[in-house]
Design goal:
2 copies of one chain form a homodimer. Chain A is an alpha/beta fold. Chain A has helices at about 45-50, 60-65, 70-75, 80, 95-100, 125-135, 155-175, 190-205, 220-235, 250-255, 265-275, 305-310, 310-320, 325-350, 355-365; strands at about 5-10, 15-20, 25-30, 30-35, 55-60, 90, 105, 110-115, 120-125, 140, 180-185, 210, 240-245, 260-265, 275-280, 280-285. In chain A, α7 runs parallel beside α8 (about 190-205), α10 packs antiparallel against α15 and α14 (about 325-350) packs antiparallel against α15 (about 355-365).
């Protein structure tokens, strides 16, 4: 498969790049909103576009269970099913399956698990997951990996790295479609020796992109930042780097500074549904009584349609009366904010002003 | 106050007219979606516009309790609060208050009731309700009336008519704003002698429009249709006629045929939230297993963005996975459908083809 990534200017550790995928171009660094069940919760594809989302993430685990392969293939693939014509990245389901704990059983060949929906038994292997993602027609497919919750023992982490590498190799061999780029995932927890081993092994397999998995799973913010920085340095300069599960303003900015190109997280939409507003100058709960008579925008520094149309008082009222429009509007704003943060980061890197951009954002949001 | 209504062509009983209100022109017959709490549930003002809604309804009872007069005035009125710049009609709260049953006490001067939100005590009088609606800056304000559930005794209905007339007179005197047109409400249940008395008394007060209240409250569909027809004939030809609380395809078409110009109902949005799709050829539940692999539109005869973008299979999936996008999309389609039905009715009346339009719709939807 052709290289999907071209690296432009860099500024300090931060990188300005471009992914050229089957369904379009993605300027990096980029944030990917999460559309777990073939929908970024509360938002339409048109709204994702107008909020400047370039690529979205969907979850293999959820789509495998419902609506399932046959329906998705009959629909003409995931893009047509959900009416999003831009790039899609699917995670492998590894993270969800390993979160099931008692309801899954790992062996060398794959993992057997019970559906959280109806208790039915399913099996993921590296090959079946890649075949599923390819059949959906996604732009980027993640390999099946073994994700370990932190804290974990050295033995657990070592075993996870061993299996993840073996499965990455099988995924590489299973990968058939020229329309789908397969990315491998690095594991190893906070153990830099294991991270180095994991990186070396998967990089040797020559994937078009690499993700840092196994972070944002229980460690402190400082541990995550330090590990992300070390991990980024272990990955090839010319390939895209994706830090999985990160979605706060501070964490993203810190990770861009480490040389990360791609992020995903449910954070902005989950916050939006729960009445938590994200702004460049910090987060707040719109349900707070202080906002019932506040006729300023959710984020005075934001130019999204929510901030230019509605007031805190109105959105606060929508949440207090449990009106669906509240979660809709705040989810939109939060996604817009992260996309706008990324746009600003890309411009700053291009202009050689990354460090001041980074410092401004971190200072404002503290 | 100037006349707000001009009557164009008629065809049989059906009427083609135009309301000229402070926030815009409304072509009749028209359907008004209900925005109880300053939001038509699940939809934005932009979506209401694109679904061809010309005017929306909001509820005095709910807005009085939350966010309350002060917040709404400070926001610059209801239009600015909810960011809808088209016409708004507010009901008077009479219907909601009289639904409270044990939690309200009626006297000649007004009605005292307890909030369903926090149990606090409030009082509506004809004057306080008109003042509230005027302060909100709405285009059409309904008078406070006494709405009786059916079945009711002759004495109950007679008392409701007596009080409703007395309150209509006081509302007429309390009405100050030239920006708000006040409409009176006819009561009398299924008793045509009382309906005649109610109509005669309120028409004598010379309001710019008249509503038929006290229907769609427990009677059969046939009783409602017969009473609506008789009531419409009791109202002045040159004034708009509004049948409150009616919102199914068949009921609306039947009522247009009786000479009704305006309708409101929570029906299309409530159905939308519950997975019930309205079409010209009848209603169905999108949750039905039959639709999980049905890749046709919600309504193949509809050209709304939901029907031209998404499949039954996808929307059915959204409902089964409890995704908020499902209620959003189906609410939009249902509102669009009723607006489109009204557009077709207006064209048919103009062309002298009302009877065949009516018969086609009634036959298709049976």
């Amino acid at each position: 498969m052709r290289n999907v990534f071209s690296l432009g200017s860099t500024d300090g550790g931060a990188r300005r790049g471009r992914l050229t995928l089957t369904h379009g171009v993605v300027e990096t660094p980029t944030f990917m909103p999460v559309g777990t069940a073939a929908t970024v919760k509360a938002l339409t594809p048109d709204e994702l576009r107008s909020a400047h989302s370039q690529i979205i993430l969907a979850n293999t685990y959820h789509l495998w269970l419902r609506p399932g392969l046959e329906t998705l293939v009959e629909a003409g693939g995931l893009h047509r099913f959900m009416a999003w014509d831009g790039p899609i990245l699917t995670d492998s389901g590894g993270f969800q399956v390993f979160s099931l704990q008692a309801r899954r059983k790992l062996d060398d060949d794959g993992v057997t698990f019970q559906s959280h929906v109806d208790g039915s038994t399913h099996r993921f292997t590296p090959e079946s997951v890649i075949a599923f993602e390819e059949a959906l027609g996604v732009d980027v497919a993640m390999v099946l990996d073994v994700c370990t919750k932190l804290p974990a023992t050295r033995e657990q982490l070592e075993e996870a790295v061993r299996t993840t590498t073996a499965w990455a190799r099988r995924s590489r061999e299973a990968w058939k479609s020229g329309r789908t780029a397969v990315f491998a995932i690095m594991q190893g927890g906070l153990d830099l020796e294991l991270r180095e081993r994991s990186a070396r092994e998967i990089v040797a397999l020559d994937f078009p992109g690499y993700a840092i998995g196994g972070l944002s799973v229980g460690e402190t913010r400082e541990e995550m930042a330090a590990t992300a920085r070390a991990c980024a340095a272990l990955l090839p300069h010319e390939k895209p780097r994706y830090l999985m599960g990160v979605g706060t303003v501070r964490d993203i900015i810190t990770a861009v500074d480490c040389g990360i190109d791609m992020f995903d997280c449910v954070y902005p939409t989950r916050c939006g549904r729960n009445g938590r507003a994200m702004t460049r100058s910090g987060e707040y709960s719109i349900r707070n009584a202080a906002y019932t008579r506040d006729f300023s925008p959710v984020d005075p520094a934001c130019d999204c349609f929510v901030c230019t149309t509605y007031t805190r008082a109105y959105i606060s009222y929508l949440f207090r009366t449990n009106e669906m429009l509240g979660p809709r509007l705040l989810s939109y704003h939060n996604v817009y904010l992260l996309n706008d943060l990324m746009r600003g980061a890309r411009e700053a890197i291009e202009c050689g002003e990354w460090q001041s951009y980074r410092d401004d954002v971190l200072e404002q949001s503290s």
